[in-house]
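A note from the maintainers: we've had questions about how concatenated examples are separated. There is no special marker in the raw files; a new sequence line simply starts the next protein. For clarity in this README we add a label.
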Amino acid sequence: MKNLEKNFQSLTSKKEQLEKKLSFLNEKHKRELIECRLSYENSLQGLVTNEIRLDLEHTIHSLKQQVIYLQQRIAFLQDELDQYVRVYGHRPFHPTPNAN
């Protein structure tokens, strides 16, 4: 019984140490990301005008929105395909064009 308690205490201690290390690494990672972003912004500051930077940021935002829309569309179509397979027991047949 004492062995189990000692083992439990040892594992609890290791768990706490790992949680502290994980927390430290998370904070370190956040700092590194901030430093990287600041470095990136500083290096870009002299290279592009504010107008171009804003245009690029809008383009990136637009592309992200398109990706989200396409992911939702894929999920919707996948659901429809799954429903079709459940009802008919197979995937729809799509003949392949002749490669002549």
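[label: protein 2]
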Amino acid sequence: MTLKPEPKYPSRRAYVLKVRSDAKPDALAGRLENLVTGRQSEFASARELLDSLASDLAASGAERPADPARGRGDDR
């Protein structure tokens, strides 16, 4: 069995989706928030929601995952 260094559902890709109380199926509006980074983006349509999600995923993809061996005082 091979252990994968990256989980299938990494925490940095966890989001809260808040839909406005006046949103309708044809007029979706609200806010998307990344739970790890705290980045928030408002959206006023389904297209803007998808664009916000894609943008955040692209930004988090540019960031390297944390190395679990770092930060434990092992550096010599």
